Amino acid sequence: MATPRAGRTQLRVGRLLKAHGLKGALKVELYTDDPDRRFAPGASFTLQVPETSSWHGKSVTVREFKWMNGHPVVFLEGVDDRTQAETLVRAILWIDQDQDEPAEPDAWYDHQLVGLDVVRDGVVVGTVARVDHFPAQDLLIVKAGDREVMVPFVAAIVPEVDVAAGRIVVTPPAGLFEELPDEPAAAGDERAGETARED
Fold it and tell me: What is the dihedral of CA 158, 70, 29, 107, to 10 degrees?
């Protein structure tokens, strides 16, 4: 993750999904409730990309932001064709945010989450040790006893974050925080071997 500048906190506002068209546009997955302000022309973003990327350590500036067929699309300065745009696919966009700027709903800084109690069924099962950011999703790394548990930071598994109360409520699938006993499949069980469909 990019290191925030002194006196600043960085907020993750989007992820570049794929090149769109031939003129350098990129579809964006938004992590902000105010995209038209965040992606206004001239807005500059720090890039989170692999160290092997030619964009590592660089920032980008918005040239134009628009909605096309219901999808947010961004044009960046210096990215003028599809080939250049494809080198930015999966990059995560971070922006400096003033400390006195109001926080957006359902948006938290990493330092606000670290140290919070993790509660399942009314029982504290661990504390947040850190937040890992990946292109597909974020993971809460929860210290549970002597081990670390990776909890996908999605609404289905983390339905409530209450920074003021110092806790995060989780509804994890069975086996995430404890070992499941081995249960042999019953003879004739037609469901044995089925793979659950992701919704």
Answer: -50
Q: What is the CATH number of domain 9-97?
A: 2.40.30.60
Contacts of residue 147, defined as CB under 8 A and 6 or more positions apart, other chains included, come to: none
Share of the chain above pLDDT 90, in %: 36
What is the rounded distance in angstroms from the CA atom of residue 173 to the CA atom of residue 63? 43
> What CATH code would you report for 110-169?
2.30.30.240
- At 15-40, the pLDDT tens digits run 999 999 999 999 999 888 788 888 99
Distance CA 119, CA 167 (A): 7
Listed in order, the ranges of the chain carrying CATH 2.30.30.240 are 110-169
pTM of the model: 0.53
Cα 105 to the center of its chain, rounded Å? 15
